[in-house]
Amino acid sequence: MGFIDLSHLGPAEIAHGWMFIGLAINILLLGIMVIQTYLYYSRYTNDRLWLKVFVGFVLVADMLNTVFEAAYLYETLIVNFGNLDAVAKATWLLACEPATTAIIVLSVQLFFAWRVFMLTQRRLWPVLIMAFALSGAVAGITSAVNVFRFPVLATQSHKFKPVVVVWMTSEVAADMISTSILVWYLRNHKSGLERTDQIVDKIIRFTVQTGLITFIFASFHLGFFLSDQSGLHLLFNFPICKLYSNSLLSSLNSRFSSKSRNNAGSESEGCMKTIEALNFEHHSTPEVHVQVESYELHDRKVLADSKTHQSEWSVV
């Protein structure tokens, strides 16, 4: 039993209509991803090489994901227009969609697991996030293999339903853990100073917002996959990898500049160390903080000496 009456829908509308809408959202998010990638490479030139390569890899994987989806719909709806057998069967192009999605989501979730480790310096939570991320990726790639093995989705999709359930629940679990740990850690490491606490609050709000979007999409995907037979879940499946990649680039592009960190560093060293763990530049900012502090002490000493001399002249 589904939410939509299938008797009034044409053969291509049942699943491919939702695919088409999902592809449109996918392309829109890909455009945002390209802009964010350009901003990242132009702003954060001091980031480590591996991070720049990682961002490039995610962008290329995102593009391939969109190409596979668009090619499948073009082949099915345009090249094979009016061919009901083509509409009823999946091809290797559609099988590549869950595979690329699983790889992109795995990459982003592993990055967030590494970020949790850099912040907390504890292995338990990152290992747990990695376990769910890896199980989700394996289930996603297995789903891709099953789509290729059982191409008649209308009658054979039940054969790989348990795998899809493992895929989506693992992704949701990894998102919940990483978001919860980041929020918990940041809230418990505030400095009590207004300026640095405002920075931490901003990071917390951003973390919750990005994690909530992916969580909602993955939950809707799983819910409609289990309860609806019209293919409505594909509306959420097609663009979901772009939400993960955009959340990655948003977190990287929202970092504070070196100047902002240096100005705030004198207020709370402990809080700024927490914020520094979210940055991945080559240079070491604590050395700059020490140098600035030494100059301030020197200036204060000179000022004190000058006041002493002035008092001596007044006595004379």
UniProtKB/TrEMBL annotation:
Keyword Transmembrane: yes
Stretches assigned to the DUF6534 domain: 172-256
Pfam families linked to this entry: DUF6534 (PF20152)
Transmembrane segments: 20-41, 53-72, 92-112, 124-145, 165-186, 206-226
Keyword Protein biosynthesis: no
Alphabetized InterPro entries for the sequence: DUF6534
Keyword field: Membrane, Transmembrane, Transmembrane helix
Protein name, entry field: DUF6534 domain-containing protein
